[in-house]
C-alpha cells in the first residue's frame, strides 16, 4: 500500500503559491519596509494565489 500524501496537482498548486509568496516577501523587503510587513505581504500573497492557481490548474 503505497499512497502519496498529496496529489501532483495539489503539490504543484502549493509550490506555485509558496514561490509567489516568497517573491512578494522579497520584493517587499527590497522596497524598504520592515521584516514583519514583508512576511505579512508574503503570507497574504500565498493566501490569494492558492485559489487562483486552483482555478488555473485544471
Please report the total strand number as a whole number. Answer: 0
Coarse morphology: elongated
Tell me the helix content.
Answer: over 70%
Q: Kindly state the mean pLDDT as a whole number?
A: 95
- Describe the main β-sheet briefly: none
Rg (CA only): 14 Å
Structural class by sheet pairing and helices = mainly alpha
Number of DSSP helical runs: 2
Please provide the ordered H/E string of secondary-structure elements: HH
Low-confidence spans: pLDDT under 50, at least 5 residues?
Answer: none
- Strand percentage, roughly? under 5%
Ends: how far apart?
A: 27 Å
Please give a quick description of this structure.
By secondary structure, this protein is an all-alpha fold.
Topology of helices and strands:
Layout: H1 8-30, H2 35-56
Helix pairs in contact: 1-2
Description:
The protein is mostly helical and 58 residues long. It is 78% helix and 0% strand. It is elongated and about 50 Å long. The two termini are 27 Å apart.
Amino acid at each position: 500500500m503505497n499512497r502519496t500524501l498529496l496529489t501532483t496537482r495539489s503539490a504543484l498548486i502549493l509550490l506555485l503559491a509558496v514561490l509567489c509568496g516568497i517573491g512578494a516577501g522579497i520584493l517587499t523587503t527590497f522596497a524598504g519596509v520592515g521584516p514583519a510587513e514583508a512576511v505579512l505581504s508574503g503570507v497574504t500573497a500565498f493566501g490569494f494565489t492558492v485559489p487562483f492557481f486552483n482555478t488555473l490548474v485544471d
